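Human: Note token order:
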Amino acid sequence: MLILASASPRRAELLAAAGMAFTTAPADIDERVLPDETAEAHVRRLAEAKARAVSAGHPGALVLGADTVVVLDGRILGKPRDAAEAAEMLRALAGRTHEVWTGVALVSDGGATVEAACTRVWFTGMTGAEINAYVATGEPMDKAGAYGIQGRASRYIDRIDGSYTNVVGLPVALVARLLAEFGGGTSSTA
């Protein structure tokens, strides 16, 4: 049995769309960035911590943990605390290129494997009015970097280099490969 250690509806939608059978059990961990921690190290650490936290309560299960951040000029942008911070993030991203990092961890009684994926994203310019209108939709509030590539912000994404599903929150091809290597397969719901 695969357990997704996440409350993210986007991650669940991505796994379901890929035909993977799973249940969910969100993990509650401290997600603060450690001093001098790189984005890659951060997402790998949190993905594993989430998977291990859920695995502890589900002996014998295979647990998938993930964590995603947006990185601009080496600065990690998590989820905005409020509308003002969301607008600030969007102003910083507008007209710039940034990276999206997702750590993926599979944990079971027999061990763990952890990897990370990176996608470069080119954001078009945004006017102040466009930023305010987008923030007013509420869409940015639960997303790293204050935007969702699969939603209204898609109009501001010029191109990407890497996995689209990584930017949504879960690099599905990487997950499928890790499941196959880990021995969990990619059991189908169809």
Observations:
- The chain has a mean pLDDT of 93.
